[in-house]
Amino acid sequence: MKPIRHIVIVGGGTAGWMAAAALSRLREGNDLSITLIESEEIGTVGVGEATIPPFVEFNQLLGVDEREMMASCQATFKLGIQFVNWGKQGDSYIHPFGAYGYPIDGVGFQQHWHRARALGDARPIQVFNLETMAAYFGKFARTDDYRRDDLPPVNYAYHIDASRYARFLRGLAETRGVVRKEGRVADTALEGESGFVQSVTMQDGTVVEGDLFVDCSGFRGLLIEQALGTGYEDWRHYLPCDRAVALPCLREDGSPPAPFTRATAHSAGWQWCVPLQQRNGNGHVYCSEYMADDEALGILNGNLAGKPQADPNFLRFTTGRRKKFWNGNVVALGLAAGFMEPLESTSIHLINTGVNKLISLLSLDGITPVQEEAFNRLTTKEYLRIRDFLILHYNATERTDSDFWNHVRTMAVPDTLTEKIELFRLNGQIFREEDELFTETSWAAVMMGQGIAMEGHNPMAARIPADALRDQFNEIEKSVRYVVERMPAHHDYLARYCPAA
Ligand code: FAD
Q1: Residue ranges lining ligand 1, Cβ < 6 Å
Q2: Fewer C-beta neighbours within 10 Å, C or N terminus of the chain?
């Protein structure tokens, strides 16, 4: 085994700088150098602004000061995602970050809720969720000031300006000794026997050698694909959208930023609205088989929140994943590893978990096949679970108004997803498999939000006497209302806590 003394990161988008900032911590106490190569001329993908709660922890582990990061990235807080027009046109629901109530007697809250409905309690399940109610009222507070013992703290994430975030992390990584090299990588040299990447050569002739390479070069997958020919698994038969057009807009009307992302379905895809402190990130994800670029831009322009600040940025992608995320001495992160559309803001999360796994599996004594196998197995599972969850959004619909919706509503879906839906229909049971990212509440929110109804509930739910169940429900609803009433408006909280720098 060849010891690892030098790590080379190719690419300086969100993935490259997240990897650099996290790996830089390994320099303390170890003989390790880290170089990051990026090309301003090529630039970054320029989108990717909505995150999910584990990202908060990722930043804490990096030692990032939340206020400082949020102020410099024009960040806002995010409590979930509002889905509009998905199950039917005119429908709307929130997929919240926190849980609906809590399990009672080991039985999922949604099952007790189903029983309570059968007993005549007409309250919607949303009133038992803090994040949904705070989002509806435009409220937010991250501290425990208004905390009730029977409610967990607010679960939140951020909306961030992605290029500012990469710059912020660059500052952090460079302070911790990461060396940045500007310029294009023009060539890659492989070692004959092992097939490992030995070095990359930049356009100006500089040769950068490394023991471990982290490919963060974006969709092109410079090392993982172009140099190593790893192969790509195409998932467009399940998730057929393959284009996006992005358009950042200034919020001129002084309206406050909502503490949630909005995903509005259109006739062949959907539109995102990601509120930052001063502007909204807007974009339209669509399927080129059913919609032309100019039509997609027209729909986006017709539904913009704010005044465009830039020219439209058209992007093409193929949903899927690399056949191996770790191949030899190359680990791919971010868009170089694979891509699933940003419907549930999972891409930055997959960078986060990729970096975590890489650090956990790393030995500076060298690289062995067992690390590669573990990394690939764990990452594949993560991708598959997220993929099923995204497919659910398209497949669980009653929309018949376009060829696109007729296709996704009737397409074959993975057996794993079919099983999840059937079990939920039967008695409201949702199995969260092996560290799966999405919780019971996540699955329940999307299934119920898009018209999949529970037909029964687990018989264990009947063990709670009806009066006791009603009392518990009353308590949870009262606690949610108590906290939400006392929370400040989201924009007031931002103005006090982290006004944009
Ligand atoms: P890039 O940003 O493309 O960076 C690639 C880097 O490699 C750049 O620095 C580039 O200069 C460098 N590079 C490439 N080739 C060379 C070369 N030859 N020599 C030197 N340097 C090179 N994710 C979320 O979590 N939430 C979202 O809301 C979200 N929205 C999205 C919307 C769309 C339409 C798309 C397409 C993606 C979205 N994503 C989202 C995904 C998110 O944008 C990416 O996961 C994230 O930006 C990471 O990108 P990256 O760093 O892998 O690639």
Answers
A1: 10-16, 37-39, 42-45, 47-51, 162, 184-185, 216-218, 220, 222, 244, 246, 283, 315, 317, 334-336, 342, 345, 347-348
A2: N
Who's near 484: CB < 8 A, 6+ residues apart? 130, 133, 134, 137, 139
Confidence check on the interface: ipTM exceeds 0.90, yes or no: yes
Q: Annotated binding residue at 43?
A: no
Residue 474: pLDDT band with limits 50, 70, 90: very high
Instruction: Please state whether beta strands 33-38 and 179-182 pair in parallel, antiparallel, or not at all (unpaired).
Output: parallel
**Ligand 1 centroid – CA 336 distance (Å):** 8
The CATH code that applies to domain 6-49+161-236+318-377 is: 3.50.50.60
- Closest Cα to atom 15, ligand 1: which residue? 217
pTM (global) more than 0.90: yes
Whether 78 sits among the annotated catalytic residues: the reply is yes
Q: Which of 232-241, 278-287, 291-300, 303-312 has the lowest mean pLDDT?
A: 303-312
Token reading at 460: 């264990």
- Between CA 317 and CA 322, with CA 320 as vertex, the angle to 5 degrees is 110
